[in-house]
Amino acid sequence: MRTARRIAAVVGAAALAVALPMPGVAQTSPTRTPAEKAERIASMAEPPPPDPAVPVPSGSDPDTAYTLASQCIGSLNQGTDLKNKPWGQMQLRFDELHRFATGKGVLVAVIDTGVRAHPFFGDRVQPGGDFVVKDKQGLEDCDGHGTEVAGIIAANPPANSDIGFRGIAPEARILSIRQSSANYKGVRVPGEQALPAGTLETLAKAVVLAADQGARVINMSVDNCRAVAEGPITAAERQLQAALRYAYEQKDVVLVASAGNTGEKGCPDQRNGVDPNKPTHIVTPPWFADYVISVAAMARNGDPAEFSVQGPWVSVAAPGTDIISLDPATNGLANLQVLADGKQVSIQGTSFAAPYVAGLAALIRERFPYLKASEVTNRIKVSASHPAAPGGRDNLVGYGMINPIGALTTLIPSEQGVRPDAALDIKAALPAPEIKNWAPMQVALVGAAGGVLLLLLTLFAVHTIRRNRPGAQREIRGSA
Questions:
Q1: Are 103 and 363 in contact (CB under 8 A)?
Q2: What is the per-residue pLDDT across 237-282, written as a single tens digit (0 to 9) for each?
């Protein structure tokens, strides 16, 4: 299969999903006092509680009229032969993984730049809605981003081909909702410049739209970053919070989002502040970690990707560099993208780590259909390869690189109704120090010394007697 592709300008918002501990999950959620929680809310390490006065957003229409402002993506047409398996696929052991589940029948919503009906999807892509050009219904992908994200979730090349690449949940179904586009632009406020499609308000509506259409998992490889100094939670963020809460609590949907890339959508440098509990910037949707699994990116060498933004909301990590996925402009595969300056680079970003986790959630929902969204989320975090950090998590990779086989085979007591072990107040009772009785040893040593002395005296006496015998004296003179 000879493929590759070109992305014109910026390809949407990239991200990698890593989520924070979910409330009520004993295995992973930290216990905080009300004062600690209030301090975290004040520092914006986590958002304030939902406002009951904010209604659940609804609607499926674009927020303005968008027109094509840049050429849609096309193929690089370099004749690159992509037969090899991506490193992430081998790292996550797909060959063994699909013995346990394939995601069959699970509907995964991809809220992104649209999904093209690539042959490697078969007939498993269905229209879900379009907030850019309504009548396209999410089945046009002018940017290429959404098709690549969906490919990591559910691509399934023919079994008789020699193509190594495939999705983590190759039999899952995809519900495509186009919510953003860098190549379509429109004027939202009269008199102001045209802007790319995609806002927090339309993202909130897309989440509700996907949940109402029966999605069991939602992937959001789209982020918005803003400085904490800009103020408290905004009206648009409140709408997104209400939508996520609705999907998670009322519709039982597993929500996955990318953690964010440095330099994109206002995201800061990787550290995001010197104090882990006081970020300088917040990233949404990951900020709403009570509902969302946010995913960080890992590099091939096992280190966190240098572009992956950290934060107290990061849940887990997944492969996010040297990506191979579906070419949105041809019927083949792609492993390169072209930046706005014309530079060709490998496909990377937290955007492409998030779908690994969304696909894993689909596998879990197939294998354990009775689990709630919170239990699926917990299973992903508990089975991850935890970093060497207090509580088994840090702000860069969360609970660590996902372990799909572990997530599908681990026995978790809470799912069986077994309460987690409680801490026991056990006082250490050390035995009393042993007092050694040295008297027998002393008697033995004295006795042994006396015996040796007696032996020496006896030998001395015998020797003296022998020398003083008359015969002994003559023998001495005769020999002289």
A1: yes
A2: 999 999 999 999 999 999 999 999 998 777 777 788 888 889 999 9
The answer to whether the Cα torsion of 137, 140, 142, 148 is positive or negative is positive
Report how far residue 134's alpha carbon sits from residue 138's, in angstroms, rounded to the nearest whole number: 8
Active site (annotated) includes residue 414: no
Q: Is 63 a catalytic residue?
A: no
> Which pTM value belongs to this model?
0.82
pLDDT at 6: 36
Out of 145, 308, 315, 325, pick the active-site residue.
145
Q: Which residue has the higher pLDDT, 416 or 101?
A: 101
| CA-wise closest residue to 21 among 404, 451, 334, 314 | 314
pLDDT confidence of 345, banded at 50, 70, 90? confident
118 part of the active site: no
DSSP per-residue letters across 197-213: E--HHHHHHHHHHHHHT
User: What are 116's two structure tokens?
Assistant: 């093209």
What integer is the mean pLDDT of 21-35? 56
**AA letter at 384:** A
The answer to whether 382 and 75 have CB atoms below 8 angstroms apart is no
Choosing from 180, 308, 351, 383, which is the catalytic residue? 351
Both structure tokens of 267? 């995201």
Q: Which residue carries 């992908």 as its tokens?
A: 141
Reported residue count of the chain is 480
122 phi, psi to nearest 5 deg: 65, -130
Q: Say how many CA atoms lie within 13 Å of 6 toward its Cβ.
A: 16
Q: Do 183 and 142 form a contact (C-beta atoms < 8 A)?
A: yes
Residues with Cβ within 8 Å of residue 290, at least 6 apart in sequence:
20, 22, 23, 46, 245, 248
Amino acid at 437: N
Amino acid at 281: H
Question: What is the C-alpha to C-alpha distance for residues 25 and 380, in angstroms, rounded to an integer?
Answer: 12
Q: Which of 112, 130, 141, 327 is catalytic?
A: 112
Q: So what's the pLDDT on residue 10?
A: 29
3-state secondary structure of 315: strand
Q: Pick from 313, 315, 310, 267: which is nearest to 287 by CA?
A: 313
**pLDDT of 433:** 79
